[in-house]
Every structure is written in structure tokens, then in C-alpha cells.
Specification:
alpha+beta
Length: 362
């Protein structure tokens, strides 16, 4: 089972939903970076369960412990191990899942591939695996901000049929965090909250879209032809649980335009070259051009719902499954920081690779 991501800035996540702990080992972080557990915890708090009425009621503090790779508040250049203990498991809620396959889950495919699986809370397929990604992403985010001045911010732009129309580059973290739905538009946020609550009451779930805006990304990074920036971002985002789609720049809407309408014309921007529009989403030829990177990531409705559903057991006998356990009626509010983490991990890895190729490492 592959649990490693990255080339120079590399992470390996570990742990299962109902195991003793989950975490990550980060290899390749430059030495001398000042970072604290509190800075990493800030991102984990945005991901943790039980944070609002819109999320799973599972109560986990998700308190991170840095086990290695730090001395006197700075990275040493050696592997950084971080761990979060699981403290609120209810494995008995999943006893039926030992024999029954949950619709649209990884139960059946894990049995097909491995012949054996941890059915408690989804085991390794659970979104608790993303704790390690978010912890590593907090370190990557700090490097990008400190070295490049890069800001990585995501928010919920759509839940079900409710969406918001706001300039992604005008959004602030304070606006996002002021909303239970993590939507910066107050009116749209209220509609999203109502829709999520209605779905929960109906024992159902909703999906939606996360909008990502990266301001001031490092320019000139990306490794054509197979490790283009947009290809690496797509791979990173689509590795997140429940993701079903990815767009960058104009995305699918751009297919409706003529080339003369879609092309980003180059202009002089106060002494440096830029583009008049940004339908490319900050990437051309697989390389960042310095413009903001704009992406959208689609998340499906949460697969675990309380409504009875048809399924089969391991022998193929038909059955009715009424899922137990504690689950999000919509993953979008907690997915925002996961998207930010994966974007930060991709960019810092490509940035370090570019510096190495250019011989700029001191």
C-alpha cells in the first residue's frame, strides 16, 4: 500500500481510523525553519471532527506531538515525525461492516485487492489519514510563506445546489473561518448551512466544491512533461477521500470560448511581465507564470448515510444496511484545509526541486 508522497519534500502517513494513532514522517524539510506545535495545531483544529454542528460528533482533540526532527524550535534537516492519538473510537458501531459492503465505500475494493481489511471506520481508507497530510502541509505552508511570500487559501464555493459568486482573490481567512460552512459569502453560507442541516435531518448527505486561490506562488516551477504543476496538483487533490473532479483556471467552462477569447494576453505590470486575464489559472506549459493559481475541487456526497440502503455481504447475499457510527453530512467544511495542505505540499516540493536544478541551494 503506497503511503508516500513527494520527491524532495517527502511525507509518509501512517495509522488507521480506529488504531492507536495516526501521523506522518516528513523527510527532506530544510534545516533552520522555525515552527511550533501550535502552528501545526492551528491547521489540525480546522480539520478535526466535532468542531461544529455541521461535522461528525466524534470528539477528537487531534493534539499533535512532534517526536523528532526539531531542536530548540527549529528543524534540524532530519526526518520530522508527528503523531496524533485516537481517543474517541467506537469500533462496535462498525461490527456489521465486517460482513456487509457499504455502498460507494472502499470496503469491497480493499477486499478485492488485499483479501483482508480493517472495517472499523474504514481503516486506512478513512479521512483520518489526512491528519498527517495537514500536519505536513502546515510545515510546507510556512516554507512557502517565509521564502516566497505565498498565501494558500481555500473555501467552500458550492454545497449541493447552493453556491456563492465571489472573487477568490478577495477572500480572507477571517471571512472563511467566520462561516460554519467555510463559505466567505454570508448569504450563501446561511443557505449552505441550512441545506446541510436538512440533509442530516433526512439521514442523507451533500457534496460540493472547494475553491482554491494561491497568491504569490513561486514562479518558474513545474517539471514538464510528466510533472507539470497542474498534473501534480490534480494527482494531489484526487488522492483526497471523496474527491471526484479537478479544474484549473477556466476549466471546463473554457471549452465554450474561442481561442481569441480564452488567450491570456501578456502585459507590462509595473515593470514585470504578467497577463491581462488569468484563464490559465497561473500555469502555462506546466510551469507557474507568477499569476495566482486558481483551482476547483469537487467532493462527492458523504458515502456513509443513515438511510437504509441495499447491499450484499461477502458471499453475495442481498442485505439491507443501516449505517451506524458518526459521520459528516457534508465533508466540504473540513476538506478546505486538506486542499490547502496538498497544494502547499506540491508547491514546496516543486520549488525545492527547481532550486536544486538551478544550483541555488546554499
Amino acid at each position: 500500500m503506497s503511503s508516500v508522497f513527494g520527491n524532495l519534500f517527502k511525507l509518509s502517513t501512517f495509522g488507521e481510523s480506529h488504531g492507536a494513532a495516526v501521523g506522518v514522517v516528513v523527510d527532506g524539510c530544510p534545516s533552520g525553519l522555525a515552527i511550533t506545535e501550535a502552528e501545526i495545531q492551528a491547521d489540525l483544529d480546522r480539520r478535526r471532527p466535532g468542531q461544529s454542528k455541521l461535522t461528525t460528533p466524534r470528539q477528537e482533540a487531534d493534539a499533535v506531538r512532534i517526536l523528532s526532527g526539531m531542536f530548540e524550535g527549529r528543524t534540524t534537516g532530519s526526518p520530522i515525525a508527528m503523531m496524533v492519538e485516537n481517543t474517541d473510537q467506537r469500533s462496535h458501531d462498525y461490527s456489521d461492516m465486517a460482513e456487509l459492503y457499504r455502498p460507494s465505500h472502499a470496503d469491497y475494493t480493499y477486499d478485492l485487492k488485499y483479501g483482508f481489511r480493517d472495517y472499523r471506520g474504514g481503516g486506512r481508507a478513512s479521512a483520518r489519514e489526512t491528519i498527517g497530510r495537514v500536519a505536513a502541509g502546515a510545515i510546507a505552508r510556512k516554507i512557502l510563506k517565509q521564502v516566497c511570500g505565498t498565501e494558500v487559501l481555500a473555501y467552500v464555493s458550492q454545497v449541493g445546489t447552493e453556491d456563492c459568486n465571489i472573487d477568490p482573490l478577495s477572500v480572507t481567512l477571517e471571512q472563511v473561518e467566520a462561516s460554519l460552512a467555510r463559505c466567505p459569502d454570508p448569504e450563501a453560507s446561511a443557505r449552505m448551512v441550512a441545506a446541510i442541516e436538512a440533509a442530516r435531518k433526512d439521514q442523507d448527505s451533500l457534496g460540493g466544491v472547494v475553491q482554491l486561490a494561491i497568491k504569490g506562488p513561486p514562479s518558474g516551477i513545474g517539471e514538464p512533461v510528466f510533472h507539470r504543476v497542474e498534473a501534480e496538483l490534480a494527482r494531489a487533490f484526487l488522492s483526497l477521500p471523496a474527491t471526484k473532479g479537478f479544474e484549473i483556471g477556466s476549466g471546463f467552462a473554457g471549452t465554450r470560448l474561442y481561442g481569441s477569447e480564452h488567450n491570456d494576453l501578456f502585459i507590462n505590470k509595473s515593470g514585470h511581465i504578467g497577463t491581462e486575464t488569468n484563464r490559465s489559472g497561473g500555469v502555462q506549459g506546466g510551469i507557474t507564470n507568477g499569476e495566482p493559481i486558481l483551482c476547483r475541487i469537487a467532493f462527492k456526497p458523504t458515502a456513509t448515510i443513515s438511510k437504509p440502503q441495499k447491499t450484499v455481504d461477502k458471499e453475495g447475499h442481498e442485505a439491507i444496511l443501516k449505517a451506524k457510527g458518526r459521520h459528516d453530512p457534508c465533508v466540504l467544511p473540513r476538506a478546505v484545509v486538506m486542499v490547502e495542505a496538498m497544494a502547499s505540499l506540491v508547491l514546496v516540493d516543486l520549488f525545492l526541486e527547481q532550486r536544486a536544478r538551478a544550483g541555488l541551494i546554499k
